[in-house]
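Marked as duplicate of an earlier ticket. Keeping the data here for the record.
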Amino acid sequence: MGGRFVAFGIATLAGLYLIAAAGWPVLAAGGASMLAALAYTGGPWPFGYHGLGDVFVFIFFGLVAVVGTYYVQAEAITAAAVAAAVPVGCTVTAILMVNNIRDIETDEAAGKRTLAVMIGRQPARWLFVATVAAAYLSAAALAPIDGFGAWTLLSWLSIPLAVSPMRAVMTSTDGPTLNSALRATARLHLALGVLLAIGLAV
């Protein structure tokens, strides 16, 4: 519990600095993010329990995180920034998907209706694969856009890291195996994000 308060304090101080630097849009984005985090598992209708957790993660850990970072530096929101956020949003959403596929039985027993619970294990598996694939396809789609270029395809160097978690998710129901897939998907998210950032910076 103490660690949470420390993290919240650090985040608050960082947020105040960013608000001072970039103005009210950062306050709006931060406030929306905090409210969404509370609504994820709290309130009268927690959307993490009603199949909307994946949408929440894609929006706030993908689009808002990337576009917000861009806004702080450029003080503008562009279609290109939103497009660049899509691959990151896909891979961070894939992390949650592995978690929810692993927990289908326990979530269903607890009344937590994640998307994986609602559509079933096999469709959830295929959705995970499609989401990872969408990350790479959306990264490739950036290449012909002015201001991006072929260097965005550096992100494809992380494709080998996608093989192991996809295989595990598609074939296993074993908790420890899916825990390993969860960690591997997190590494994939980091690698794709770093390589994409390098490609954008070149």
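See parent ticket for discussion. Residues 35-201 form one domain.
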